[in-house]
Amino acid sequence: MGSYKFSEKEIIDLTVSVLAIAFIFSYPNLSPTIFLISLIAVGSGFIFHELMHRTVARRYGAWSEFRAWYEGLLIALILKIFLGFTFIAPGAVYIYKDYLTAEENGKIALAGPLTNVALAFIFFILMLISPPISLLYSIGSYGFYINLFLAGFNMLPIPPFDGEKVLRWNPLIWAIFGIPLICYLIYMMFW
């Protein structure tokens, strides 16, 4: 399967996951504007992160497709609506190849968080060039924050996160990318 071809199941799973994530991040302040900001900022971060894993895996000759975890999405919705707690486990890119080296697996894993860093930079530029009280500024600001948060969270060096696979492949690469992102994550969670 080519790097850019999608199965019907994958398209449905990605669409449901993105809409659920946008709802979760905009609840309880649901309005068309808040939902749009969430859909663009969080949805793009999630979808490009997963698609980059998929694309790199396919470049290494592996079968790979995103699959939603509907139970995880339901748990996330229940936690948000009834407890106000945000927990996201929308699914993952499933990868199959007879054998992936630690380097291949590490590079596949690193591709997602690096995509979030690139998106954060794009959202930061959008924020800089937009008037402070505007829809574009809000999208840029939220997109910057959430993409760095997603990158840091995914670089945690514990299974099943991407950071564990990167650390197993190359501790120096993990340290270069993981430590600053995790420091940002900790800063954002506690300050």
SSE succession:
HHEHEHHHH
Relative strand content: 5-15%
For the largest beta-sheet, the strand count, sense and barrel status come to: 2 strands, antiparallel
Rounded mean pLDDT is 93
Instruction: Indicate the structural class.
Output: mainly alpha
Individual helix count = 7
> How many structural domains does the protein architecture include?
1
End-to-end CA span = 45 Å
> Given the C-alpha coordinates, what overall shape results?
globular
Helix proportion range: over 70%
Rg measurement, Å? 17 Å
The spatial strand order of the largest sheet comes to 1-2
Oligomer: single chain
Number of β-strand runs:
2
Unreliable spans: none
Keywords: Cell membrane, Hydrolase, Membrane, Metal-binding, Metalloprotease, Protease, Transmembrane, Transmembrane helix, Zinc
InterPro entries: Metallopeptidase_M50B (IPR052348), Rip2-like (IPR044537)
Family: Belongs to the peptidase M50B family.
Main location: membrane
Describe the fold and architecture.
By secondary structure, the chain is mostly helical. The chain has one domain. The protein has 7 helices and 2 strands; from the N terminus they run H-H-E-H-E-H-H-H-H. A two-stranded antiparallel ribbon has the order 1-2. The model has no long low-confidence stretch (mean pLDDT 93).
Keywords summarizing the entry:
metal-binding; zinc; hydrolase; 2 strands; mainly alpha; 191 residues; metalloprotease; cell membrane; two-stranded antiparallel sheet
Quick take:
The protein has 191 residues and is mainly α.
